[in-house]
Amino acid sequence: MIGSTRNLRVFAYGAPADLRKGFDGLAGLVQGEMGGDVLSGDCFLFTNRKRTRAKVFVWDGTGLCIYMKRLEEGRFACLWDQDGSGPVELTMSELALFLEGSRLVGRTALSPAQSRRRSLAKGLSM
Length: 126
Description:
The protein has about 130 residues and is α+β, with helices and mostly antiparallel strands. The protein has helices spanning about 25-35, 90-100; strands spanning about 10, 45, 55-60, 65-70, 90. It has a five-stranded mixed β-sheet.
């Protein structure tokens, strides 16, 4: 697995990708279509249309790395909608689960929604 002591952000490409692409091709997808910076240290996840292969593209501080996984059985979870919308942000834990073949489930907010500050004196008249 991708080892790091840093807190990394993970962005999954929101459509099937041509995984024949190498460093320059994936960098073009990151910069041109995802609006990301390949030298940021963030991880960028790409899967093919059949969802049997995945590549993770990351800058490790000294160079660009591509990690690839090919499934012999089954498929990776689908990370894109029908419209092929923009990138999907994942946590490193979700990336690890994804690469292990787990199905992604919806997220539950762990913190309550932020409340707005209101003046208590607004409705009072003297």
